């Protein structure tokens, strides 16, 4: 963990959560003050819950974010949601380029960059996800893949205030598998170098999250790794107790 960078613990609820999930979110709000000294907290529920959750979260130590956006502000795009609409509903950050969007919807780096710019246009922080697949890892291509994704997905003008990068090895998402701390340190160090060489002082301060099967039992070890400035959490973010326990694991 880089001392000067305050960690971010972000939950990605994916396509999970009906209105009744507000009770779990309430439990997160109630426990947030206890971990506020450790990290910033962000919950990204499905778009249908953003407005209700952000109303509840007003004045509390949990932010509300979104999981995706369309690059355009409005128009004939049936079923899509603009960044402006998400911000209007209360989102302060928008995840873009999650590997499930890249795989299920064929999203490429250029589109993801435009989505990140859309988040900025609307006034939200962009959380840009990158990560290699198992096949790419087996072929020894991890660093090349990450270099390409960073180059293509991050807009010019990225700063510590408008961008968060989440390194999420695809093979670690939802599988219970995690890279070793040594692997995470090497890869986060590599990403940090690229960010610093492109964005200078801002690149040195951009939050760099690890994501992929983070849970209370492995959080403290992963969060202590150099250049890990928090986590993006899928499954374990659905339960307040687990989500808060992960935040407690931050150094
Ligand atoms: C994710 O999908 O962003 C993720 C990290 O999922 P999980 O924590 O369930 O592996």
Describe the fold and architecture.
The chain has a domain at about 10-125 and about 170-190 and about 220-250: Aldolase class I (TIM Barrel). The chain has helices at about 20-35, 45-55, 85-90, 100-105, 110-120, 135-140, 140-155, 180-205, 215-225, 240-250; strands spanning about 10, 40-45, 65, 95, 125-130, 165, 205-210, 230-235. It has an eight-stranded parallel beta barrel with strand order 1-2-3-4-5-6-7-8, surrounded by seven helices. It has about 250 residues and is α/β, with parallel strands linked by helices. About 45% of the residues lie in helices and about 15% in strands. Strand 3, helix 3 (about 85-90) and strand 4 form a beta-alpha-beta unit. The protein binds phosphoenolpyruvate (PEP).
Main structural class: alpha/beta
| Unreliable sequence segments | none
CATH topology of the domain at 8-124 and 168-191 and 221-248: TIM Barrel
Main sheet: which strands, in order across? 1-2-3-4-5-6-7-8
The CATH architecture classification of the domain at 8-124 and 168-191 and 221-248 is Alpha-Beta Barrel
End-to-end CA span: 8 Å
The kinds of small molecule bound in this structure are: phosphoenolpyruvate
Helix count equals 10
> What profile does the largest beta sheet have?
8 strands, parallel, barrel
Q: Which percent band covers the strand fraction?
A: 15-25%
The amount of helix comes to 40-55%
Spell the H/E element sequence: EHEHEHEHHEHHEHEHEH
Give the radius of gyration. Answer: 17 Å
Mean pLDDT: 97
Number of strands: 8
Shape: globular
At the fourth level of CATH, the homologous superfamily of the domain at 8-124 and 168-191 and 221-248 is: Aldolase class I
CATH top level of the domain at 8-124 and 168-191 and 221-248? Alpha Beta
